[in-house]
From TrEMBL:
Keywords: DNA-binding, Transcription, Transcription regulation. One of its GO terms (molecular function) is transcription cis-regulatory region binding. Residues 42-61 bind DNA. Residues 19-79 form the HTH tetR-type domain. It comes from the Bacteria. InterPro entries: DNA-bd_HTH_TetR-type_CS (IPR023772), Homeodomain-like_sf (IPR009057), HTH-type_TetR-like_transc_reg (IPR050109), HTH_TetR (IPR001647), Tet_transcr_reg_TetR-rel_C_sf (IPR036271), TetR_C (IPR011075). It comes from Halalkalibacter akibai (strain ATCC 43226 / DSM 21942 / CIP 109018 / JCM 9157 / 1139). This is Transcriptional regulator.
């Protein structure tokens, strides 16, 4: 990330950064993204909200895009996902908890921020690339860690099947946030899991009635 590179550069120049300011600046960036979106975001506005000089920001980030990239990583839920999930509960509960946590369904401001970042990524190649690495692949890893253990004895998921299962959550939630402009809450996630994901998993197992019956007991 750009922050780390800038920190190293500052250290080389003998002027160590006050790292406590990074959090203040990134928080201000996220707040402004939620309020105004990416296009309206300016370094001047971030500096004013964070109560720092513009030079303080530019010593850490060379552009608005680099700043937003680090802000997106700063709000990423994946580092805390494992401690949040209860791996002993049924598959349905784990899927609902994971998707609700990743998309921060109980936080309207976080949803607005995510929507602003996703919208900007569609026309910003650098942001899009980082977002895919930071979110898309980590989301797939989280999905795999939940789904594969439940299916490994009954069904060997092929890549196309896993792609579809993994894409359902991000596709519907980002569509709802960006195009329909409606909030997504835990109840919406529950409907998505109950009406799409669990039925799809059962369909994959439908060729073996005994396996389907067995996994239904754990859903």
């Amino acid at each position: 990330m750009s922050t780390q590179n800038d920190n190293q550069e500052e250290t080389k120049r003998g002027r160590p950064l006050d790292l406590s300011r990074n959090k203040v600046i990134l928080t201000a960036t996220l707040d402004l993204l939620a309020e105004n979106g990416f296009d309206a975001l300016t370094i001047d506005a971030v500096a004013a909200r964070a109560k720092v000089g513009k030079a303080t920001i530019y010593r850490r980030w060379s552009s608005k895009t680099d700043l937003v990239i680090d802000a997106a990583a700063f709000m990423s839920p994946f580092e805390k996902l494992e401690e949040y999930l209860d791996r002993n509960q049924p598959l349905r509960g784990q899927l609902i908890d994971m998707l609700s946590f990743i998309f921060q369904c109980d936080d309207d401001k976080a949803q607005n921020t995510l929507t602003a970042i996703y919208t900007a990524a569609s026309s910003n190649e650098k942001l899009d690339k980082v977002l895919k690495n930071e979110f898309y692949w980590r989301h797939r890893e989280a999905m795999a860690s939940i789904i594969r253990p439940f299916l490994e004895e009954q069904h060997q998921l092929i890549e196309a099947e896993f792609d579809l299962l993994s894409d359902i959550g991000p596709a519907l939630i980002t569509y709802r946030g960006i195009f329909v402009e409606k909030p997504f809450d835990r109840a919406y996630v529950e409907r998505m899991v109950d009406m799409l994901m669990i039925p799809m998993i059962n369909t994959l197992l439908s060729e073996d009635d005994e396996s389907t019956s067995a996994i239904n007991d754990t859903l």
